[in-house]
From TrEMBL:
<dbReference type="GO" id="GO:0043546">
    <property type="term" value="F:molybdopterin cofactor binding"/>
</dbReference>
<dbReference type="InterPro" id="IPR009010">
    <property type="entry name" value="Asp_de-COase-like_dom_sf"/>
</dbReference>
<dbReference type="GO" id="GO:0016491">
    <property type="term" value="F:oxidoreductase activity"/>
</dbReference>
<protein>
    <recommendedName>
        <fullName>Molybdopterin dinucleotide-binding domain-containing protein</fullName>
    </recommendedName>
</protein>
<dbReference type="Pfam" id="PF01568">
    <property type="entry name" value="Molydop_binding"/>
</dbReference>
<feature type="domain" description="Molybdopterin dinucleotide-binding">
    <location>
        <begin position="14"/>
        <end position="53"/>
    </location>
</feature>
<dbReference type="InterPro" id="IPR006657">
    <property type="entry name" value="MoPterin_dinucl-bd_dom"/>
</dbReference>
Length: 58
């Protein structure tokens, strides 16, 4: 996967619960945090959902 700030090698597989054109990585994985920006709600300080655009190279 290639994102704006990081390039990673990951193993993946297709699941019927993830829509075509999307991928899922648990947000608690350190590698996920390297791909996404740290953002949070300024009032509650709760972490935001993590998302970013990636290019998957097979």
């Amino acid at each position: 996967m290639v994102a704006n700030d990081s390039t990673q090698v990951q193993y993946c597989h297709a699941e019927p619960t993830v829509q075509l054109g999307q991928l899922f990585m648990p947000m608690h994985y350190a590698k996920t945090n390297q791909l996404t920006k740290a953002s949070f709600d300024p009032h509650s300080r709760q972490p935001s959902y993590k998302f970013c655009a990636v290019n998957v190279v097979v």
